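Hello,

Our lab assistant flagged a job as stuck in the queue for most of the afternoon. It eventually completed. Since we weren't sure the result was trustworthy after the delay, we are filing this so someone can double-check. Below is the sequence as submitted and the structure that was eventually returned. Let us know if re-running is recommended.
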Amino acid sequence: MVVSEAALAEAEMTRRHVATCTLCEAACGIVVETDGERVVSIRGDHDDPASRGYVCPKAHAMGELHHDPDRLRRPLVRDGAGFREASWDEALRLAIEGFARVRREHGRDAMAVYYGNPVAHNLGLITHGMPLTRLLRTRNVCSASSTDQAPQMLAAEKMLGHVGMIPVPDLDRTELLLIVGANPLVSNGSLLNAPDMKRRLRELRARGGKVIVIDPRHTETAQAADEHVFVRPGTDALVLLAMIHALVEAGLVRLGRLAPHVEGLETLEALARAFSPSRVAARTGVPAETITRIAYEFGRSRRSVAYGRLGACTQEHGTLASWLIMALNVVCARLDEVGGAMFTTPAVDPLDVLRLAGMSSGYDRWRSRVRGLPELMGELPIATLAEEIETPGRGQVRALLTLAGNPALSAPNGPRLEHALGTLEHVVCVDAFLNETTRHAHVILPPVSPLQRAHYDLALHVFSVRNAAKHAPPVFSRGPDERHDWEILAHLTAGLVVPKGLRHAYLAAALRGPEPIVDLALRAGPHGLRGRRLSLRVLRDHPHGLDLGPLEAGRLPARLYTRDRRIHLAPSLFVREAEALVASLETPVPALVLIGRRHLRSNNSWLHNAPAMVKGPARCTLLVHPDDAKARGLREGALVELSSRTGRVTVPIEISSEVMPGVVSLPHGWGHTREATRLSVARAHAGVSANDVTDERFLDRLSGNAAFNGVSVELRSLGAPLDVDTPEASAASSDS
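-- returned structure --
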């Protein structure tokens, strides 16, 4: 066969790259085909031992994100009411000078830091961003953790001694999976690195296992489960206490191998006696016989595990729910056992990395200045940031550094925070887009795209359902006028916290990048391959990644971080809060409450500018149960005003029995209606921000986590139905 010169040239231009999708925690293996500097295709890597060729639609957005004409390639600095492009030298100088001035005039707590959830998926932001945060020595640090998993972190801190000691369900070997307030078929697993959840649940059921979902919405995961149980938002802790009550009464409590290392069982049993299934049924909406039956099934199963996530966390009693999920695993001898809630043996242990970075675990070592909310692992809740900016006095926040975050859309009562951002003296954002938050910046420092940076999953391998390690080199090199995020942060660190005489030496080391840190950590880690210590060289020889085996039982008590090396089953802080729940059993139930939801084609607010992620029917709609719609005279597609104490939005409805009566559901991350942004695709599919109606005062009191679920709301019809497939429906919103 004769091959033409044109075909040969095309073959030489087209290259195949093995990489990792970094857009969610699943970290699926992908194969990226490029033609020169263009992405031709992205598909699943069938040789990746974890994902086995699976990818969700988000993977295809990697190429669109890289080529997005709205993505910033050069720094922007404020020029009057707008922005102008600047050189890196000028932008970094202005960023550093502004922060230095604020700290000099008002003290180090006048500078706040916020980092968003993409930090967990970004090697350079972890290795270079988190140390900067600690070296700034400000008490005003916030992150997406307090809109997400802070209750689970606090439960792990109090029970096992470290915020990172969050076990993962042994999905591939369990026989009964109880899911509370989680939707892993859409999230791809959260604090649970498990690509292709649909396959894993299908395999679980095929081997005779069972999946039970407790959730106020009949989610995609519930549709794939054996049983779904509706629960009233915010009452998961009551259901879990009643389950423990049933186990105690039936004599099904057992601690197994860990019995000598557990304290507080008697206290927990005494607490649970006040919460019988019959007593909590009316408040939770779960029949007493259902609670009892599920408890018995869980306790009698040979291998069972309880898993909860976002819905269990983002509610008024999120810490109690997170604590009781772990306690349920403990009292049925499911913690640190095959098929139960287990701990990884990561090739690089992020808990060791945090310790070396000076980021110790801890809780309530200081409190926020205005409302007195407690610190958790060096961070204050994002719910307090607006008031810390607005309230005069010593320690008032006057400057802000954001790293890969958009709190204007992700924080509760976003409009209040947006207004506060506009009053700050100096705002610097390390971000690739001019979005709802960065429009308030004085300097925007854009990093390269995910396809231009190397990746090792430093943070999230600790939540993997199998021990694994993988390094992915960048698909594209950075341009001469582009910067990696770790380069940006190295220069900010040098200018802000490194003594002048040491800056050259510091930069020489820091600008080597994150990979030497990973290599050293791999070599010091617990794994090897055929007699060789793991290293970056070994991982580069295995570009699809290494499966390092299943999770191993028996990691406790050696891995415990508590001072007495014991599992604290009933921390007094949690017991006191749970005792107060007795009063809630008599509290009137709000007529209508709001919960959130997410879609497979969405990831918070930062993928809505990718055309592939927003095509098809508008997804920013309000789910309303048929009974609630009928009672208010609402028809499918009708425009309604959804209001709360903090604000109101206009949104089209979908009438669906997917939500239980008395509950409405609005997805988060939308609301791209703000002026002075550069998000052309997102603005054309704007939707409304659920956080225009959430409440910064409504939170989990123990952790300070925002309570996005269970917000009391009202509905008011605005007229005739609007086709929810139309752009007008997507854009119908009230700007803040």
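-- support follow-up --
The delay was a queue issue, not a problem with the job. The result is valid. Confidence is low (pLDDT under 50) at residues 722-736. Residues 314 and 367 are 21 Å apart (CA to CA).
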